[in-house]
Amino acid sequence: MKATYYGQSCVEFDFDGTKVLLDPFVTYNPLAKAIDVNTIKPDYIFLSHGHQDHVADMATIQKNSNATVLAIVETAAWVRRQGVPEDKVVEFNLGGTIQLPFGSVKMVYAAHTNSTPDGQYGGFPVGFVFNVHGKRSILLVILP
Question: Model pTM greater than 0.70?
Fold first, then answer.
């Protein structure tokens, strides 16, 4: 496993060739000013919540990479409104587990607020428990 930290809560994991990006906030992030957002090409994008400083580059990165975006139901609805194709959005809910090529991901509750950049309710903020190759290896609750 390889991890790349882009600043704030934006991290990319490489699970043996499958790239997973969390909370894409690069372009407007002073900590990431040297990073070209167009070079980030994940297979999956996970959103912990809809605040601008966690989703600002989601649409650009998704379009450039054709990544699948995963989020809680209400935040996933916002993702669709940004023009992400239906077959590239996976919505799930608290306690839900998704099976992916590298393992499974469970959505867990995170204590925070959540609204989308357009001011709509974004559902609960969430964290993710990644089980990679049968081992619970990462617990991420991504907040500001």
Answer: yes
